[in-house]
């Protein structure tokens, strides 16, 4: 697995062993919530035996039997489900590792350290092992596991290893330090890294651009008011503003003192901090500061150096704190994602103290972000991808007809139970006052408790429901009334362009991107229209329209608008650009599905024809497709070194949506997917195919399952109809 030449040697000098006993880990799933437990005694292990699901994710062979060699695509899909049924979670969905980003664990470990939260020994051991496994050959870490070493990744994860107990003269630490120093040391760390290091007291707040919480006291109608920003960005800058106002830092201790020496190429005391506010190492930058941003920061820095306006600062901090309290309460202390989770964690600790009930809740929900794997313990991109994966699996089961097989019925019924349990049925507890979008009728990306509407998750959840209940005829669990709630919600999410964004409508002007202070991420300041989200929404509305005539005129109008947007978003070369997975291949699957709703297919539409040829031109010699992660960063299709099962499935589904008439390319693609299937029915997770904010890779280890089964099922139908099986 180690094509990147990653270091696997540990040779730790501290007192911890190099790894825990993998046979003692158990995943407990309750109401979609994932918690990994480490059992201490053999007796406990006997009472709570390891399941196939546990073993699979720990990288232990589950000993699934060899299945009869598939003769047709449908046989292969059947074999696929035969395997994956074994690792379905007890509550009906599929749990999965949602790793990839390497800038999350620093928040966790620094957050726990500065709040003196004890870190369980098994976490400590396995987090170290994970980081050693994910270090690049040069000793550093990237922004994500597929990226080159950066200052952000290296400085933060170096500090993490040290906080977890690794000695400075450990060989991996020596290598990492050398890499960091060769990149200029931690003064050039991007702003989010500056903030984490400042909290840890190994970077000075003076070396940061201001994050005035006063922004929250501006009038709501202002086009730059933070309520209009992309939800993830504003949720991160709320606690950041509070911590900035406090200039919070951990008390000095010998380890911090030592880190101050290790992280920099010059003596800590001699660093002129204010010069480093805009100093970001070149390798880290994706979105350079604009002149507008730096000018604004210059003005704000003068405001800060004059002492600001204390009453306004106090009001801003009060407001920021109120908002983050509401976020905690709206999400059961999960928060929207792991970054604001840990920032809120520190803020709440400052205000409420370690013994408060609030902190007990916060500590409990740390566990939801920890995922144990064969390579160690990681912090995940969200508290899971539960709904997202379950809805694709459900649809692949129905579309391929596998749902009809008696041995699969129970598994499909429990997916439906899960969908029932996790549809959100109310608006958030703190709603308008917390600037939240409506949630009634939504499905979230992960769990109901996390509780955020996502446009396409609602769409996919609804499609999965209708397919299971109405098409496959499973017992109805989700009433028509509840589906109408989803429709009502989705219809409010369309933008004037006709497209759909991710969590909300677009609420800020595009110029706001000029103020992106995040450096390492692109397109984070506001919502954007996405072909992927748009398609999920309109396909779900259309499916709904077939079973109910509720608001059918509104739905028709919405679909028309969406198709208009999809056509406008096509690039001159015939492709669509994908934002949430790699890359053109992914977006084209969605865009061509949208157009097929409008009866625009290969035979009837030049636009679709052009798109099909774009894909066919990129089909590889072996019949598959493989697009590199770098396509997302550069915006151009870049061929990977080999074809990937997941992207081959996407391209295949895209061509089938477009009703591409020739069986030949379809057959060649099917062959790739079948050839890569293991004798027990599963497919390896070959590479990271998820992405966000243009620059960060994220894993979807169940995609090789859901999309392969889906593509094979669809291709089977097509080839059978053409007599070309
Ligand atoms: C996700 C994952 C899922 C993704 C899709 C549903 C696939 C997409 O179609 C809509 C956007 C969404 C929900 C999405 C948004 C950004 C997320 C939450 C992530 C990529 C997973 C991790 C990422 C989050 C922002 C990570 C934390 C980083 C920050 C920049 C705050």
From TrEMBL:
NCBIfam families: squalene_cyclas (TIGR01787). One of its GO terms (biological process) is ergosterol biosynthetic process. One of its GO terms (molecular function) is lanosterol synthase activity. Belongs to the terpene cyclase/mutase family. The keyword Hydrolase does not apply. Keywords: Isomerase, Lipid biosynthesis, Lipid metabolism, Repeat, Steroid biosynthesis. Residues 1-22 are annotated as: Disordered. Residues 85-372 form the Squalene cyclase N-terminal domain. Residues 385-716 form the Squalene cyclase C-terminal domain. It is an enzyme of class 5 (isomerase). InterPro entries: SQ_cyclase_C, SQ_cyclase_N, Squalene_cyclase, Terpenoid_cyclase/PrenylTrfase. Pfam families: SQHop_cyclase_C (PF13243), SQHop_cyclase_N (PF13249). This is Terpene cyclase/mutase family member. It comes from the Eukaryota. The lineage of its organism: Eukaryota, Fungi, Dikarya, Basidiomycota, Ustilaginomycotina. The keyword Transport does not apply. It comes from Meira miltonrushii. One of its GO terms (cellular component) is lipid droplet. Its EC number is 5.4.99.-.
